[in-house]
Specification:
Largest sheet: 2 strands, antiparallel
Number of helices: 5
Strand order of the largest sheet: 1-2
Structural class: mainly alpha
Shape: flat
Order of helices and strands: HHHHEEH
Number of strands: 2
Radius of gyration: 15 Å
């Protein structure tokens, strides 16, 4: 409720849509494999509403970029933060570093 309340404050009469850049590819999977999915083309409106009030999520996102992520953001209303990496090894290394820093972290690869 707090996350949605923040959106109500930021966007009066919010209907769930925000005009942003879109992925210039018909196939999201191809764009992902090409490394074309960046923070400039994907967007989560909750980032603006929640990150200023959630230092741990902000720290996780900052660490993901420092560890080599080319895009990072919250999923949904802040249940988790994820990063996209060009290689599986970089993703594994980032997960290990986050775990060593006290975060719960996992990595996955697209197939």
């Amino acid at each position: 409720p707090e996350a949605y309340g923040e959106l109500d404050k930021m966007y009066p009469n919010f209907d769930g849509s925000v005009e942003k850049n879109t992925v210039p590819y018909a196939d999201f999977e191809i764009a992902l494999k090409q490394g074309a999915i960046t923070s400039s083309v994907i967007y989560n409106v909750f980032d603006e509403a929640i990150l200023p009030k959630c230092p741990i999520a902000t720290e996780a996102k900052t660490k993901l970029y420092a560890l080599g992520s080319y895009a990072a953001m919250m999923s949904g209303s802040g249940s988790s933060v994820f990063g996209l990496f060009k290689t599986e090894d970089t993703a594994k290394s980032a997960a290990d570093s986050l775990i060593a820093s006290g975060f719960k972290a996992f990595y996955a690869k697209s197939v």
